[in-house]
Amino acid sequence: MKQVAFGLVVTLILVSCIGIGTVSAVSYSNKEMVLTFDDLEGGDAGTPLPVGYEGLSWDPEWFYWDADQDPYTPHSPSTRISSLNYGGWIDFSPLPQDVVFSGAWISGYNLTQVYFEGYNEGVLVGTSATLTPSETPTFLDAKFGGPVDKVIVVNSAFNFFCMDDVTYIEQVMIVDEDIKPGEEPNTFSRVSRDPLPVAIVGETELDVSKVNMETLKLEGIAPMNCSLEDVCSLEGVSGKDGCCDMVMKFDSRKLAKLDVIRHAAKGSTVPLTITGILADGTKFEGTDYVVITR
Ligand SMILES: [Ca+2]
Ligand SMILES: [Ca+2]
Ligand SMILES: [Ca+2]
């Protein structure tokens, strides 16, 4: 991600001063997360959701399954969740910030009624409308009116409902990614065997030693290796600036197989996004671009 620094231009009689403010690439962006559960296969009423699924804490009563079963229609095929205990809770407090809980898709028998309660620090923030399920999934909009750290799904019957595509808004840190640190433009040859170096630019607001290296992915591909070195600075400038950078090397042959690169025309520009998580749980991402030369 490249951000433009705006200089303040002051003209005083014949003297012009250009003041450059402190430049930071770190900002935060609201990102909608949709938990589809579709990475979980199989399952039945005896299969609990994995502990810590998607970094959250879940009522151990939640179970998942992917087999067809009317009227428990998944909103995203094929996996959805349910519980045999009058609903269940989702605890967002493992995340570094509170979330805005949007809602989830509900289906099932019209023998029950479902609503959400949202809590923050144990205090009720809001209660959704009440939904009577049918075999057609319906979005139950939480409309809590404020951020929450816990949601309770209240179900009036022991069972008879399922839930899918749990949707919430989480803050994601936007960092400065520099493919081929200090170089511009970033050329990429699809026949190259040389590893592609990529840096996350360290700065006063981003201590890259706090990056959990095991979580780093460039378009879903893990680096071959990573190291902490001072090689570049913000705005793609080469050389040391006193702030350590996270420097990774990626297998160019794996990158060349990505659809976005494989299908790109020669000479076109392709965004490659780096994602990862800091030690405190903060999710981050950054985007830089390569120009396809071959
Ligand atoms: Ca699903
Ligand atoms: Ca570069
Ligand atoms: Ca640096």
Using brief descriptors, characterize the structure shown:
294 residues; Immunoglobulin-like; five-stranded antiparallel sheet; 3% helix; 43% strand; binds calcium ion
Explained architecture:
The protein is mostly beta strands and 294 residues long. The chain folds into 2 domains: 29-172, Protein of unknown function DUF4465 (Jelly Rolls, Sandwich), CATH 2.60.120.1350; 175-292, Sandwich (Immunoglobulin-like). 3% of the residues lie in helices and 43% in strands. The protein has helices at 252-256, 259-262, and strands at 7-12, 15-20, 27-35, 57-58, 62-65, 80-83, 87-91, 100-108, 114-120, 123-127, 138-141, 150-155, 161-174, 177-179, 187-188, 196-200, 217-218, 225-229, 232-233, 237-238, 245-250, 269-277, 283-292. Strands 3, 8, 11, 13, 15, 17, 22 and 23 form an 8-stranded mixed beta sheet that branches. A 5-stranded antiparallel beta sheet has the order 4-7-12-9-10, with no helix packed on it. The protein is elongated. The structure holds calcium ion (3 copies).
Reconstruct the topology from this structure:
Layout: E1 7-12, E2 15-20, E3 27-35, E4 57-58, E5 62-65, E6 80-83, E7 87-91, E8 100-108, E9 114-120, E10 123-127, E11 138-141, E12 150-155, E13 161-174, E14 177-179, E15 187-188, E16 196-200, E17 217-218, E18 225-229, E19 232-233, E20 237-238, E21 245-250, H1 252-256, H2 259-262, E22 269-277, E23 283-292
Parallel strand pairs: 13-23, 15-23
Antiparallel strand pairs: 1-2, 3-13, 4-7, 5-6, 7-12, 8-11, 8-13, 9-10, 9-12, 14-16, 16-21, 17-22, 18-21, 19-20, 22-23
The chain binds calcium ion (3 copies).
